[in-house]
Specification:
The complex is a heterodimer of chains A (110) and B (113). With 110 residues, chain A is mainly beta. Chain A is built from no helices and eleven strands. Chain B has 113 residues and is an all-beta fold. In chain B, strands 2, 4, 5, 6, 9, 10 and 11 form a seven-stranded mixed sheet that branches. In chain B, strands 1-3-8-7 form a four-stranded antiparallel sheet, with no helix packed on it. Classes of the chains: A mainly beta (110), B mainly beta (113).
Protein backbone atom coordinates (compact mmCIF):
# COMPACT_ATOMS: atom_id res chain seq x y z
CA UNK A 1 0.00 0.00 0.00
CA UNK A 2 1.12 3.53 -0.71
CA UNK A 3 1.58 5.45 2.48
CA UNK A 4 3.47 8.43 3.89
CA UNK A 5 4.18 8.61 7.60
CA UNK A 6 5.21 11.71 9.48
CA UNK A 7 5.63 10.59 13.08
CA UNK A 8 5.68 14.04 14.68
CA UNK A 9 2.59 16.23 14.75
CA UNK A 10 4.51 19.09 16.34
CA UNK A 11 8.19 19.89 16.47
CA UNK A 12 9.51 22.80 18.50
CA UNK A 13 13.05 23.95 17.84
CA UNK A 14 15.02 26.92 19.07
CA UNK A 15 16.12 29.52 16.55
CA UNK A 16 19.58 28.66 15.28
CA UNK A 17 19.27 24.98 16.17
CA UNK A 18 19.21 22.22 13.53
CA UNK A 19 15.88 20.99 12.23
CA UNK A 20 14.95 17.50 11.09
CA UNK A 21 11.41 16.64 10.06
CA UNK A 22 10.97 12.91 9.65
CA UNK A 23 9.19 11.20 6.79
CA UNK A 24 8.90 7.53 5.91
CA UNK A 25 7.11 6.11 2.95
CA UNK A 26 5.73 2.83 1.67
CA UNK A 27 5.65 2.31 -2.09
CA UNK A 28 6.40 -0.69 -4.24
CA UNK A 29 7.62 1.18 -7.31
CA UNK A 30 10.19 3.88 -7.87
CA UNK A 31 9.05 6.73 -5.63
CA UNK A 32 8.92 10.41 -6.33
CA UNK A 33 9.11 12.31 -3.05
CA UNK A 34 8.22 15.90 -2.22
CA UNK A 35 8.07 18.28 0.69
CA UNK A 36 5.31 20.89 0.76
CA UNK A 37 5.03 23.81 3.14
CA UNK A 38 2.07 25.89 4.24
CA UNK A 39 2.78 29.14 6.04
CA UNK A 40 0.08 30.76 8.15
CA UNK A 41 -2.79 32.01 5.99
CA UNK A 42 -1.04 31.03 2.77
CA UNK A 43 -1.69 28.30 0.26
CA UNK A 44 0.13 25.02 0.09
CA UNK A 45 3.34 25.30 -1.90
CA UNK A 46 6.01 22.93 -3.08
CA UNK A 47 9.24 23.27 -1.09
CA UNK A 48 11.42 20.71 -2.79
CA UNK A 49 11.43 17.41 -4.66
CA UNK A 50 13.98 14.66 -4.43
CA UNK A 51 14.79 14.44 -8.13
CA UNK A 52 15.95 18.05 -8.29
CA UNK A 53 18.37 17.57 -5.38
CA UNK A 54 18.31 21.29 -4.67
CA UNK A 55 18.29 23.29 -1.49
CA UNK A 56 15.38 25.66 -0.96
CA UNK A 57 15.42 28.20 1.86
CA UNK A 58 18.29 26.23 3.36
CA UNK A 59 16.30 22.98 3.49
CA UNK A 60 17.54 19.73 2.00
CA UNK A 61 16.13 16.23 1.87
CA UNK A 62 17.82 13.02 0.81
CA UNK A 63 15.95 9.99 -0.40
CA UNK A 64 17.11 6.86 1.43
CA UNK A 65 15.59 3.90 -0.35
CA UNK A 66 17.04 1.41 2.12
CA UNK A 67 15.30 3.06 5.03
CA UNK A 68 12.39 4.28 2.89
CA UNK A 69 12.88 7.75 4.33
CA UNK A 70 12.93 11.32 3.04
CA UNK A 71 13.72 13.44 6.07
CA UNK A 72 13.79 17.24 5.71
CA UNK A 73 16.77 19.00 7.27
CA UNK A 74 18.03 22.49 7.87
CA UNK A 75 21.21 23.24 9.81
CA UNK A 76 20.06 26.48 11.44
CA UNK A 77 16.39 27.18 12.06
CA UNK A 78 14.97 30.64 11.43
CA UNK A 79 11.77 32.08 12.88
CA UNK A 80 10.24 32.36 9.42
CA UNK A 81 10.49 28.58 9.08
CA UNK A 82 7.51 28.17 11.40
CA UNK A 83 4.87 26.48 9.27
CA UNK A 84 3.11 23.22 8.50
CA UNK A 85 5.24 20.78 6.53
CA UNK A 86 3.86 17.88 4.50
CA UNK A 87 5.86 15.04 3.06
CA UNK A 88 4.31 13.60 -0.08
CA UNK A 89 4.70 10.71 -2.48
CA UNK A 90 4.06 10.79 -6.21
CA UNK A 91 2.09 7.66 -6.95
CA UNK A 92 3.32 7.01 -10.46
CA UNK A 93 3.17 8.17 -14.01
CA UNK A 94 -0.31 6.99 -14.80
CA UNK A 95 -2.00 8.04 -11.62
CA UNK A 96 -0.12 11.28 -11.24
CA UNK A 97 -1.76 11.84 -7.88
CA UNK A 98 0.10 12.79 -4.74
CA UNK A 99 -0.25 11.02 -1.42
CA UNK A 100 0.36 13.30 1.53
CA UNK A 101 1.42 12.59 5.07
CA UNK A 102 -0.54 14.09 7.94
CA UNK A 103 1.96 16.90 8.34
CA UNK A 104 4.27 18.22 11.02
CA UNK A 105 3.87 21.65 12.52
CA UNK A 106 7.28 23.24 12.97
CA UNK A 107 7.42 25.88 15.67
CA UNK A 108 10.61 27.90 15.92
CA UNK A 109 11.18 29.24 19.40
CA UNK A 110 12.92 32.61 19.80
CA UNK B 1 -2.80 36.99 -9.57
CA UNK B 2 -2.08 34.34 -12.15
CA UNK B 3 -2.20 31.40 -9.76
CA UNK B 4 -4.93 28.83 -9.24
CA UNK B 5 -8.10 30.44 -7.93
CA UNK B 6 -11.07 28.89 -6.15
CA UNK B 7 -14.54 30.17 -5.45
CA UNK B 8 -16.05 30.53 -2.95
CA UNK B 9 -13.39 30.65 -0.27
CA UNK B 10 -15.87 29.73 2.44
CA UNK B 11 -19.23 28.00 2.30
CA UNK B 12 -21.60 27.25 5.14
CA UNK B 13 -24.52 25.02 4.29
CA UNK B 14 -27.15 22.97 6.04
CA UNK B 15 -27.07 19.21 5.95
CA UNK B 16 -28.90 17.89 2.94
CA UNK B 17 -28.25 20.88 0.71
CA UNK B 18 -26.23 20.75 -2.51
CA UNK B 19 -23.08 22.82 -2.96
CA UNK B 20 -20.85 23.55 -5.93
CA UNK B 21 -17.28 24.80 -5.93
CA UNK B 22 -15.30 26.22 -8.78
CA UNK B 23 -11.61 26.02 -9.60
CA UNK B 24 -9.84 28.10 -12.23
CA UNK B 25 -6.44 26.61 -13.04
CA UNK B 26 -3.40 28.42 -14.29
CA UNK B 27 -3.93 29.22 -17.94
CA UNK B 28 -2.99 26.38 -20.27
CA UNK B 29 -2.39 23.88 -17.49
CA UNK B 30 -3.94 20.73 -18.87
CA UNK B 31 -4.02 18.81 -15.58
CA UNK B 32 -6.35 19.70 -12.76
CA UNK B 33 -6.65 17.96 -9.40
CA UNK B 34 -9.09 18.04 -6.51
CA UNK B 35 -8.05 17.19 -2.95
CA UNK B 36 -9.88 17.24 0.37
CA UNK B 37 -8.26 18.14 3.65
CA UNK B 38 -9.83 17.56 7.04
CA UNK B 39 -8.55 18.81 10.36
CA UNK B 40 -5.28 17.22 11.37
CA UNK B 41 -4.83 15.42 8.07
CA UNK B 42 -2.87 16.03 4.94
CA UNK B 43 -4.68 16.61 1.66
CA UNK B 44 -6.35 13.49 0.25
CA UNK B 45 -6.66 12.95 -3.48
CA UNK B 46 -10.20 13.00 -4.87
CA UNK B 47 -9.95 13.15 -8.64
CA UNK B 48 -8.03 14.58 -11.55
CA UNK B 49 -8.56 15.70 -15.12
CA UNK B 50 -6.38 15.86 -18.14
CA UNK B 51 -8.05 18.49 -20.27
CA UNK B 52 -11.74 17.63 -20.10
CA UNK B 53 -11.24 13.94 -19.38
CA UNK B 54 -11.64 12.74 -15.81
CA UNK B 55 -8.90 10.13 -15.57
CA UNK B 56 -9.14 8.91 -12.00
CA UNK B 57 -11.53 9.05 -9.10
CA UNK B 58 -10.66 8.11 -5.54
CA UNK B 59 -12.89 5.75 -3.61
CA UNK B 60 -13.32 8.74 -1.27
CA UNK B 61 -15.49 10.26 -3.98
CA UNK B 62 -18.89 8.83 -3.17
CA UNK B 63 -21.85 8.93 -5.54
CA UNK B 64 -22.85 12.25 -3.99
CA UNK B 65 -19.73 13.88 -5.43
CA UNK B 66 -19.34 14.82 -9.06
CA UNK B 67 -16.67 16.80 -10.81
CA UNK B 68 -16.59 18.26 -14.26
CA UNK B 69 -14.20 20.17 -16.42
CA UNK B 70 -16.05 21.31 -19.51
CA UNK B 71 -13.81 22.45 -22.34
CA UNK B 72 -10.74 21.61 -20.30
CA UNK B 73 -10.62 24.98 -18.54
CA UNK B 74 -12.26 25.60 -15.15
CA UNK B 75 -13.61 22.75 -13.07
CA UNK B 76 -16.54 22.36 -10.73
CA UNK B 77 -16.98 20.00 -7.81
CA UNK B 78 -20.53 19.38 -6.69
CA UNK B 79 -21.59 17.67 -3.50
CA UNK B 80 -25.21 16.60 -3.31
CA UNK B 81 -27.12 16.03 -0.08
CA UNK B 82 -24.25 17.26 2.05
CA UNK B 83 -23.44 15.51 5.31
CA UNK B 84 -21.55 16.80 8.31
CA UNK B 85 -18.64 14.54 7.38
CA UNK B 86 -18.22 16.54 4.19
CA UNK B 87 -16.97 19.50 6.22
CA UNK B 88 -13.41 20.03 5.04
CA UNK B 89 -11.11 22.22 2.99
CA UNK B 90 -11.39 21.41 -0.71
CA UNK B 91 -8.19 22.12 -2.59
CA UNK B 92 -7.62 22.42 -6.30
CA UNK B 93 -4.27 22.19 -8.05
CA UNK B 94 -3.16 22.41 -11.64
CA UNK B 95 -0.07 21.48 -13.61
CA UNK B 96 1.15 21.61 -17.19
CA UNK B 97 2.16 17.96 -17.08
CA UNK B 98 3.48 15.24 -14.86
CA UNK B 99 6.63 17.04 -13.84
CA UNK B 100 5.19 19.96 -11.95
CA UNK B 101 3.14 19.41 -8.85
CA UNK B 102 3.23 22.66 -6.93
CA UNK B 103 0.34 24.86 -8.01
CA UNK B 104 -2.37 24.73 -5.39
CA UNK B 105 -5.29 27.08 -4.97
CA UNK B 106 -6.25 28.71 -1.67
CA UNK B 107 -9.01 26.18 -1.06
CA UNK B 108 -12.72 26.32 -0.32
CA UNK B 109 -13.62 25.68 3.28
CA UNK B 110 -16.96 23.89 3.57
CA UNK B 111 -18.86 23.77 6.84
CA UNK B 112 -21.96 21.60 6.97
CA UNK B 113 -24.23 22.39 9.92
Amino acid sequence: AQRVTQPEKLLSVFKGAPVELKCNYSYSGSPELFWYVQYSRQRLQLLLRHISRESIKGFTADLNKGETSFHLKKPFAQEEDSAMYYCALGAGNRDDKIIFGKGTRLHILP
Amino acid sequence: DTGVSQDPRHKITKRGQNVTFRCDPISEHNRLYWYRQTLGQGPEFLTYFQNEAQLEKSRLLSDRFSAERPKGSFSTLEIQRTEQGDSAMYLCASSPGTSEKGNFGPGTRLTVT
